[in-house]
């Protein structure tokens, strides 16, 4: 007779998820699924947010996931309980940006979903450091019987040390993080509000701080004003809800921003694994070095 192994995990809402046996079929928000994949867990399915295409996951968020092998439940208004349960998941892993609200799901949908299957919510909001977020995903992965390879931690340590050395003088090239928002304007990221950008600041990267004003996470401005900040490196949001950079090739305002800068692709919903974070830090280091 197969031995039953009880499983439980307390999520970032303080709610206990439990099953008689360790879950095997995990349905995850794209960011969470990509993070768990780097820890050795293959999600049975993925779902997106209201910003995503209901027909296909946003490739910018998916990290190393083999998308052709994983079912996609949809996103936005298409996500009802039936769609989420179609693949018979025995665990749902979602994220929150604070307050316990399940990101990407209508509150009523999330409530009814928990009547059918355990839901674990990981807080990825600005109140936490990226290391804290990563550790919570690591704890969840370990509870599911998996762990990110030790080589990934060494890779991350090397990337952090490289960036720290590049910026040891304290007055390195300026770096601007932004999200293109059409042909006329861009959202400039406030570094302190984004865990991944705070890491760059801690490693000495000279991140541009937009002017104070409305917008907690972003400062929205014309491209000409962004160009006036004279960044040497631009971290450009490549999610599907940002204006694709290809559509800005002939835009004079965008050319003024990026013409004299190295442009690095940036996903503001990062995969929260050591491997993925190291890869991002290396991209930034390459841009600063060149």
Automatic annotation (TrEMBL):
SUPFAM superfamilies xref list: Helical backbone' metal receptor
Keyword Transcription: no
Gene3D superfamilies for the chain: Nitrogenase molybdenum iron protein domain
Keyword list, A-Z: Signal, Transport
InterPro entries hit by this protein: Bact_iron-sidero_bind (IPR051313)
Protein name per Swiss-Prot or TrEMBL: ABC transporter substrate-binding protein
